[in-house]
Amino acid sequence: MARTIVAAGFGKYYETRSASGVRPEALPATVLYDDPAAQREFVAAPGEHVREATLILDRIRCAACLWLNEQSLRRVPGVLRADVNFTTQRAQVAWDPRATRLSRILEAIRAVGYDAYPFDPRRGDALARAERRRALWRLFVAGFGAMQVMMYAWPAYIDAGGGTLSPAAEGLLRWASLVLTTPVLVFSCGPFFRGAWQDAKQRRISLDTPIALGLAAGFAASAWATVTASGAVYFDSIAMLAFLLLGARTAELFARQRAGRELDRLARWRPSFALRLQGSVTERVPAHALVPGDRVLVGAGERFPSDGVVEEGASSADESLLTGESRAVAKRAGAALVGGSVNLEQPLTMRVTRVGADTQAAAIGRLVERAAASRPALVERADRLAQALTYVVIATAALAWLASGDVWIAVAVLVATCPCALALAAPIVLTRAGAQLLARGAALTRSRALEALQRATDVVLDKTGTLTLGRPAIARVDCFSEKDEGQCRALASALEASSSHPLARAFRRVGNMPTLRDLRNEAGHGVEAHVDGRLVRIGSRRFCAAIAGPAAPEPKAQVYLAEEGRWLAAFFIEDAPRPEAADVVRSLVARGLRVHLVSGDDAALVEQMARRLGIESWAGGATPQAKFDYVARLQAEGRVVAMVGDGLNDAPVLARADASIAMGAGADAAQLQADVVLTGDRLGALLDVLALSRGAMRLVRQNLGWALLYNAVALPAAALGWIGPWEAAIGMSASSFIVVLNALRPLAGKNAWKRASPSSSPSRSLSYS
Amino acid sequence: MEASLTLLVPLSVALVFLIGWVFWRALEGGQFDDLERPAHDILMDDDEVKK
């Protein structure tokens, strides 16, 4: 196996790994996973020749293991992408089914000594449970051992003056302490020693090294004192130290698992069973056995087992799973259903369109999971600092020992300083930020963007589809004949009812529509028909002028209506702004952000929209290049730009901005190239994104600042002998606990980003999740 | 008093191992896997009929 690793050019693994590897034992056959029926559950097909799956990696113990797995996966021919998430210990793999098979990918991981399972929430639970049990058992042994050893140490402490305790009795208590401390050290602290030993073999040190050195030195000195019946013993300190260290570790493990669970929300929604309709008979089948085309009966209060469309019945659904907004959305025949959302009112018959890993919820879940692959620069700096600090700690401990001759000062230095507090807090915060944003209808696809979002000084908004709904509506009607506005609208609606032109959607059907004869659709120009024996046309100005005569009205409107010999009306069509747009802009301005509106639409329209929403800087008629230059110019002035667009037409400018946010409703959400995708298609979520990014980065900075401050104080204090080993242990554990607990705090306070006018707030206010 | 120590100290060591074993059994039996759900079980009706 080592040969496989080295032959593949992964020798670096042996330089960096901090835990021993494992042997590939008799493992279940991976070829089973090539069966298309089995794959439907966890393999998505985002493109014709692309397959994508999430794998759980087993037996991962350190960052080097993750690196090795990632590299091995990327080396498999046909693998297009592989990212490994540290917090959740999962790998995202995309491959070309023409070039490789899933079983080969799994084999590649087994070849280097790990194991991977296709992601299945239940399997993940089992692994997490086993890990929790191990951690608790270690903690219990250490805690109970420490308690008992403390009792044995007590007589020695009260008898500090000597006299009442005979040497024989003292020896007995010391031996009893030794017997109880040994399992604490060997079993409970095993992970520290294994990690440190692996690193020592590669001649490098990790975060475990100082702890292992401190424990080993303290234990060896005490054991020697016991055997030779001379000097002082500190078994109580050792055992307590172990307990406190493990306590911090266990807290970290629980926090990590909890953060991972928050992220799993999207993967867990699916019910286990579905009622499939075979003709008129219903049949209870496992939900994963559904295939596109199946008809399924979904009762009120149940979750839809997959994506689909309503075939029969009318009800409403709670789609908060994707949109972050608990609001009933009406569903009639033909409406699209999101798998995992809840059917609220009436039983529905649905036709399945997408199943398993292809569903929207699964696609967005994968997107968010990938976020952890890019970490904020601040966090990467902290990791490097933690590495460097480890060396400083060991050097200081060695110097202190040489200078004072007292091994306990060295132990205190090794234990008191805690580079791990630097390393462990940020990942938890970042994972939680991703999960909480998701709960509010925003998928964070790159953690790195949190830093830019938090520093953003300018928000550049696109118009169509971002500030507006992307749905045209009639803004104004000018009438030129004795027919009033209502009559003109009715006539126009009747004519446009059959048209497929995008602007035709602006004409809603109204009650009293005149009867048409000889309807003719002139593609690209308009529609004509006979009404009461007269020819009527609707469409472009020129199309209408051909029958109405030369005295044309101003060419400002988008759609004209005319009949033989005269003009009837001009319709001004406008894309209406989102109802919450003005509130969102006001809130952004209130938070001291500069808001810009940049759009490819007509300059006059853009100006009008900007004034209406209270936006001070705008640019109309902008080509994609002009938008790009606009953002670049702001950045040249030293501004940090967050760009909000629809994610499809403005990809270049989104890529140029420091942070990019795309509005994405439904199916395309997973395809958008942006740092954050607002999956609920709700502009208000932008405020949540900015508030949460500030909150998350604040927590990261607090944690890093605290860890730095603590180490800066503890290192010299311990080196000078001011604090003993047990005080050092309390200090170190407390610093880890504080960091972990701080990482679990709410990311954004209740009133952090109150909207400017709460009365018209369309979405939930920010609150604890 | 010292004579009792020679008996009680080894006894306490043995007791520690006994308690450790009991805890281990409980842990492996799943006692600590889920500290929240069992409290809700009493409120749930078993509507699923076993086949």
Secondary-structure topology with pairs:
The complex is a heterodimer of chains A (769) and B (51).
Chain A: H1 2-7, H2 12-16, H3 36-39, E1 43-47, E2 50-58, H4 63-75, E3 79-85, E4 90-95, H5 102-111, E5 115-118, H6 121-158, H7 167-188, H8 190-201, H9 208-228, H10 235-268, E6 273-278, E7 281-286, E8 295-298, E9 307-312, E10 315-318, H11 320-323, E11 328-331, E12 336-337, E13 342-343, E14 348-354, H12 360-370, H13 377-404, H14 407-416, H15 419-439, E15 443-444, H16 449-455, E16 458-461, H17 463-467, E17 468-479, H18 485-496, E18 517-522, E19 526-531, E20 534-539, H19 541-548, E21 559-563, E22 566-577, H20 581-590, E23 594-598, H21 603-613, E24 617-619, H22 624-636, E25 641-645, H23 651-656, E26 659-663, E27 676-678, H24 685-719, H25 725-743
Parallel strand pairs in A: 16-23, 16-25, 23-24, 25-26, 26-27
Antiparallel strand pairs in A: 1-2, 2-4, 2-5, 3-4, 6-7, 6-8, 8-14, 9-12, 9-14, 10-11, 10-13, 15-27, 17-22, 18-19, 19-20, 20-21, 21-22
Helix pairs in contact in A: 6-7, 6-10, 7-9, 7-10, 8-9, 9-10, 9-14, 10-12, 10-15, 10-25, 13-14, 13-15, 13-24, 14-24, 14-25, 15-24, 15-25, 16-24, 24-25
Chain B: H1 2-28, H2 37-41
Summary tags:
heterodimer, A: 769 residues, alpha+beta, Alpha-Beta Plaits, Calcium-transporting ATPase, cytoplasmic transduction domain A, Rossmann fold, 7-stranded mixed β-sheet, 6-stranded antiparallel β-sheet, 27 strands, 47% helix, disordered C terminus, B: 51 residues, mainly alpha, 0% strand, rod-shaped
> What structural class do the secondary elements of chain A suggest?
alpha+beta
Greatest contact between two chains:
A-B, 20 and 16 residues
Quickly give the structural class of chain B: mainly alpha
Separation, N- and C-terminal Cα atoms of chain A: 46 Å
**Percent of residues in β-strands of chain B:** under 5%
Largest sheet of chain A: 7 strands, mixed
Radius of gyration computed on alpha carbons of chain A: 33 Å
Mean pLDDT of chain B: 75
Helical element count of chain A? 25
